[in-house]
Amino acid sequence: MKFTATQIAGILEGDIVGDPNTEVSKLSKIEEGTEGSLTFLANPKYTQYIYSTRASITIVNKDFAAEEELTTTLIKVEDAYKSFSKLLEYYNKVKLNKVGIEQPAFISETASYGKELYFGAFSYMGDNVQIGDYVKVYPNAYIGDNVTIGNNVVIFAGAKIYSESVIGDNCVIHSGAIVGADGFGFAPNEKGEYQKVPQTGNVILEANVDIGAGTTIDRATLGSTIIRKGVKLDNQIQIAHNVEIGKNTVIAAQTGIAGSTKIGENCMIGGQVGIVGHITIGDNVKIQAQSGIGRNIKDGETLQGSPALNYGDYNKSYVYFKNLPKLAKTINQLEKKINNNE
Question: Which residues of this protein are catalytic (predicted)?
Fold first, then answer.
């Protein structure tokens, strides 16, 4: 796809300095710009590169004033970073704007869907599925029986949505994600064998939720596993049965959350965090990477370590335990002096 400077300026409501007919077909970093590419300058540290970049078009802030001759066409906007992000969003919509039902694909006679559906080859839509408008389902995706999907949802290739799941408007589910698999529920019998506890609940994703590639969200034993509005989950995260995650919380890769734990709103959870089951984590909590959480957490706490400590206490303690070998040596020397004086 090619775009002219005039078209881009129209999308961004920007002003052109240079050739309005300049065309671009790809994106680049400003220091790696090549002919036919579009880039941006937002960080003053990179200003030097605007004089050497070979990018055909560069988005800059309105207050930018060139001190040397430029070969790139400028589009001046209020905020170059936000405008570039807006352009990326627009580009993705155009790039992913597929419509129609590819063959072979299976759609149950009892399923229903709205306008401008895209349903990729080898995908499956089960009984009584209800899908809204402008939904994109990429090849090899699976949508089980009785699933409800809102408007403007994107389900990428190979994602699996198990039966009874509810997906809200504007959600994005990336490849390999599994929504609604059975929770890890087993009970020992009198022989010491583990028998499966039926998982009869479902998963609910509210609006504007992003699910990363390879992430798994288990259905509830009873009731629902709930991911609230605006939650963003990275790749390879495990969400167990009956977990609830509050709105606008973000969680980084390889985090695991055990069953029935409740996480509040606007939390930030780093990668490889482990959280035990049946606890409550408050709002606005920050958990550093590789921390282990085994207790209830109050609103606004920042934690690190395993088991996790208050972030400030952890840093103070670290000063001591990183020096334990030296401290032990000092203690041994003092003990010898004491013993020699006896």
Answer: 241 (proton acceptor)
